[in-house]
Specification:
The protein is an alpha/beta fold and 177 residues long. The chain is built from five helices and five strands. A five-stranded mixed beta sheet has the order 3-2-1-4-5. Helix 1 runs parallel beside helix 2 and helix 3 packs across helix 5.
Length: 177
């Protein structure tokens, strides 16, 4: 299974392409979609959409794992991230890629084994699990790798779930037309 991990943002969108096969994972590629500061938000969203379409077209992921939106103190930034996240989800839906959402604590639990782990612990375990020489850079890409790894380690139980796909459930179904 090819998994596209996404750490959403509007200035930087971290992405990771991970191959999961019989309990083993391999990082194919990771990086970041960056948008130019000072560009109007609609132009940034368009660039994110175009780059997401290209990632999906090149790697043909079967699933996209994306971090659920978490509002910190800056609501203004959160609104921009929410809009970028909408563009990201739309690109996956249009391409009929199954979408799975994970909270930061679910990612930490899947990668480190502790839902309140520190960011450096998640990055270190990601590096160890995937036998990487260094932690991926930038941090947004490293986060996307952890999100993809979270899905790789938990997708079997999600696929077996009979619960309907609803926002916040960790799973959306792609409707076949």
């Amino acid at each position: 299974m090819i998994i596209l991990g996404i750490d959403p943002g509007f200035a930087i969108v971290g992405f990771a392409i991970l191959e999961a096969n019989h309990g083993k994972q391999r990082l194919i590629q990771c990086g970041a979609i960056t948008t130019q500061a000072g560009l109007p938000l609609p132009a940034r969203l368009l660039q994110i959409e175009q780059d997401m379409d290209e990632l999906i077209a090149v790697f043909h992921p079967e699933a996209m794992a994306v971090e659920e939106l978490f509002f910190n103190n800056n609501v203004t930034t959160g609104i921009g991230v929410a809009q970028a996240r909408g563009v990201i989800l739309t690109a996956a839906e249009r391409a009929r890629v199954s979408i799975y959402e994970y909270t930061p604590s679910q990612v930490k639990q899947a990668v480190v084994g502790y839902g309140k782990a520190e960011k450096r612990q998640v990055m270190d375990m990601t590096k160890r699990i995937l036998n990487l020489r260094t932690v991926p850079k930038p941090d947004d890409a490293a986060d996307a790798v952890a999100i993809a790894l979270c899905h790789a380690r938990s997708h079997a139980s999600l696929l077996a779930s009979l619960d309907p796909a609803t926002p916040g459930s960790g799973r959306y179904e792609v409707r076949k037309k």
